[in-house]
Amino acid sequence: MSKKIAVVLTDLFEDVEYTSPKEVLEKAGHELVTIGFEAGETVEGKKGEASVTIDKGIDEVSPEDFDVLLIPGGFSPDKLRKDDRFLEFTRYFGDSQKPIFTICHGPQLMINAEIVKGKKMTAVKQVLVDLRNAGADVSDEEVVIDESGIISSRTPDDLPAFNEAIVNALSE
């Protein structure tokens, strides 16, 4: 069954951490909607390999309209976590135990939304200590799957395993 996936994104996202999951999720028949500060805005990946036109502004969407949240890494999550609207949006998925797929620096947004306590997670090395301090059960593995539906991964090197895990989770 096709799922509607919210992708929160702004400038300096990690290019491949958006493009690679997007490709496999769309190939599996799912719909991705990019959500940023403003609809129509073009955001650039930090390596300059991807640019994305935002589908919907955060004020135009309701988390209830989505089945899954995807948070790519890079500097994007750090920029988004300063905005209460993105924190509330993210918090809804955590509180509702709807799936959240996150990689690299993506968990920074979840930390600020205060939804990681007691969750099994991983992230890029420099974010692991932040996750641990926020109460997550941290491990340094290529993919960590929590019973709540959170699937987390560390770096672009882990994308094959991450992509397989997220596609499999949505086919169950």
Automatic annotation (TrEMBL):
UniProt xrefs under InterPro entries: C56_PfpI-like (IPR006286), Class_I_gatase-like (IPR029062), DJ-1/PfpI (IPR002818)
The record ties this protein, via SUPFAM superfamilies, to: Class I glutamine amidotransferase-like
User: What CDD domains does the record point to?
Assistant: GATase1_PfpI_like
DJ-1/PfpI domain spans which residues? 3-168
State the family named in the UniProt similarity comment for this chain: Belongs to the peptidase C56 family.
NCBIfam families linked:
PfpI (TIGR01382)
Can you name this protein?
Protein/nucleic acid deglycase
Gene (name only): yhbO
